[in-house]
Amino acid sequence: MKKLVALAVLLTTGCGAHIAPTAAADTVTVTNCGQRVAYAKPSRVVTNDTGIAELMFALGLGDRMAGYVIGGGQAKDVASSPWRADFERVPNLGEQITKELVQGAGADFVFAGWNYGFSESTGFTPDALADLGIATYQLTEACRNGVGKQRGIMPPLDALYTDLRNLGDIFGVRDKAEELIVGYRKQVAAAEALVKPNRPKVFLYDSGLDQPFTSGRNAAPQDIIGKAGGDNIFGDLDDSWTTVGWEAVVDRAPDVVLINDYADGEATTPDEKRAFLESYPPLADVPAIKHERFFVLPYAALVESPRNPAAIEAFARFLVDSVHP
């Protein structure tokens, strides 16, 4: 088996944010998932998922965290994280977020998202936490858009910048948020300068053997692919992460497969995922498979996170080198 093309996406953490003093009883009101919400400045935050924790770390807010929760499949993301030192300093509270866990941590604020911790099936919801006196902030990538449980209310990079600004306001570090956004916009613009006119079709493969789990237009891969010069073959789906059928993948004939390095399901490594794709008969004539065009990015670079701009740059360079030699 040929070695996968892979790249560890690294970012510069920069200096810590200055936390401005707050007068007693001060609150800040921001728009989160279409609702105006007032927040007192939190001091004991619990996050769920690596990308969400990294948003806090990028803003220099590790000292405001009571801890973080990450799934077992995200250990590699912590090891490769530009904020690994923050992950080591802040308590790891476990792999499954629950009401009991956040209460035990003394949390006054939970930063999570639908399917990024919040779930009716587990009873861990913003309403349930409000009943306990715990404020919540929902990841904008995971906001529900009013159609069942579909998620996503704005383009993915806009979601990233919105959350950075909102968190900057809530925690009194808006200047740091704007500094990050300016830097990310420059990084994305530099990647877009590499884009060639002929845009390859890209299939984001997260997991799934019977049915593939992929990205619609509201999840981070939409902008990672698009800003890098490709077209997401499922960019017409008004959802974030979603399940499709293999027939649709075959019909849309991707030129490149972007693999999510995330341990889920039966094929848990990028090598195992590629081996499955190359051995699955219906995909034999798909251009990406025939021409062996695969690229791997870490899970934490493909969900909304401060790694997104670097992921765009890395994928743009791959497309230039491998699809437009």
Topology:
Elements: E1 27-32, E2 35-40, E3 45-48, H1 50-58, E4 65-69, H2 75-80, H3 84-89, E5 92-94, H4 99-104, E6 109-114, E7 117-118, H5 126-131, E8 135-138, H6 156-171, H7 174-192, E9 201-205, E10 213-215, H8 220-227, E11 231-232, E12 241-243, H9 246-252, E13 256-261, H10 270-279, H11 287-290, E14 294-298, H12 299-302, H13 308-323
Parallel strand pairs: 3-4, 3-6, 4-5, 6-7, 6-8, 9-11, 9-13, 13-14
Antiparallel strand pairs: 1-2, 10-12
Helix pairs in contact: 6-7, 7-13, 8-13
Protein name: Iron complex transport system substrate-binding protein
Domain Fe/B12 periplasmic-binding: 44-325
Signal peptide: 1-19
Q: What does this 3D model show about the protein?
A:
With 325 residues, the chain is α/β, with parallel strands linked by helices. The protein folds into 2 domains: 122 residues, Nitrogenase molybdenum iron protein domain (Rossmann fold, 3-Layer(aba) Sandwich); 135 residues, Rossmann fold, CATH 3.40.50.1980. The protein is built from 13 helices and 14 strands. Strands 3, 4, 5, 6, 7 and 8 form a 6-stranded parallel sheet that branches. Strands 11-9-13-14 form a 4-stranded parallel sheet, with helices on both faces. It has a two-stranded antiparallel ribbon with strand order 1-2. Helix 6 runs antiparallel to helix 7 and helix 7 runs parallel beside helix 13. The longest helix has 19 residues. The chain is globular. The N terminus is likely disordered.
